[in-house]
Amino acid sequence: MQSAFEGARTMKIETYRHDPASGWSSPLDSWLDSSRTLVILFGASELIEAPGPIDEVTAAFPKSAIVGCSTAGEIEGDRIGDHGLVAAVARFDHTDVALAHADVNRPQDSRGAGRTLAAALDRHDLRGVLLLSDGLAVNGSELVDGINETLGHEVVVTGGLAGDGDRFVRTWVLRDGRPVQRAVSAVGLYGDRVAIGHGSRGGWDKFGPERRVTRSEGNVLFEIDGSPALELYKRYLGERAAGLPATGLLFPLALRSSASDENSVVRTLLAVDEAHQSMTFAGNIPQGWFVQLMSANFDRLIAGAGDAALLSRGGADRPIGDVLSIAISCVGRRLVLGERVEEELEATIESLPRGARQVGFYSYGEISPHANGRCDLHNQTMTLTAITETERLAA
């Protein structure tokens, strides 16, 4: 089978970083602007109040499709920063791009928003969708279910939920070049020359008994084994419970449909409700499913990032260039890894094709297929999307 990245490389990629103190790392290259140019921005949540750097990008690339969202840390290459903005500009020679947006005023609107986006982008030559969502107002599981109801399995859907550091107060998504709350945006990539690789891996260890969800509503968990969920969770966290919901990122939940289900997903805590002793997660926690606490294994987290990069390159075994890598990692991984966080970024760069350009962000949820097929919401993973153009579509 031909590698997803084999063949002529025709797209042009540049990456930039904006720092509040020093400005842009290099001048924005307006020559890249075109109707086939994709611009991706990841920046600090405070840019919703002071969007000057975003305005500079939209002015430099008026013809381009521009998407972006707020972060819990901005990624460029193997570096991570806060309070800034990173940008990737990819000008395709043979790939069409199109934007779609939807509002989500409440979590119950999430599935409908997914359907709206998918319907707006769907056409016979759609190959991939990059999906960026508000990180607090959206039920990520319902969002991807709405996408899956409309698009076929052959369309690669990846992306993530916007972040706000460890504050969980506000997130934004770009709509018409402006950062707004309670919105979802997506960009479609079209044609037989675009190749899209993807990979998602975790690295957490399960501990404690597996328990059954006995009461839940969507992404709100009320009871586990008949007991208040928050009470049980606090018992495990001990002194760390005082720091909820942020400290909950250190102990995500593994979730599977039954004791015989070999596939599990991970769910990240977003909020707690003391009055109802409930917990709100980034995605659904179905009643009757099984949950188990997880804790960090530093070496496995870093190795998992490298494995995700290997998966995203489609099995290519030789150095190649002209690849845009979009790295989306969970904020919980950043909090756990602490000063070692750049090691997981170094692991992705080492595993990607030589010359690949990487931008990304730390998120409140990651969107990617498990392997091939329908996309799903993940938490506490490193998820990579690798995009390039080829002479012909990979076999």
Key words describing this protein structure:
single chain; 395 residues; 2 domains; 6-stranded mixed β-sheet; 7 helices; disordered N terminus
Describe, in plain words, how this protein is organized in 3D.
- By secondary structure, the protein is an alpha+beta fold.
- The protein folds into two domains: 12-201 and 299-389, no CATH class; 204-295, no CATH class.
- 19% of the residues lie in helices and 38% in strands.
- The chain is built from seven helices and 28 strands.
- It has helices at residues 52-60, 110-121, 140-150, 229-237, 298-312, 331-337, 341-351, and strands spanning 12-19, 23-24, 37-43, 65-70, 74-76, 79-81, 85-91, 96-103, 126-133, 156-161, 173-175, 178-180, 183-190, 194-201, 204-206, 211-217, 220-224, 227-228, 253-256, 265-267, 269-273, 278-281, 290-296, 324-330, 357-363, 365-369, 375-378, 382-389.
- Strands 15, 16, 17, 18, 19, 20, 21, 22 and 23 form a nine-stranded antiparallel beta sheet that branches.
- Helix 3 (140-150) links the parallel strand 9 (126-133) and strand 10.
- It is globular.
Quick summary:
This protein is of the alpha+beta class and 395 residues long.
| Count of separate DSSP helical elements | 7
Radius of gyration: 20 Å
Write down how many β-strands occur, each being a DSSP E stretch of 2 or more residues.
28
In this structure, how is the largest beta sheet organized? 9 strands, antiparallel
Separation of termini? Answer: 6 Å
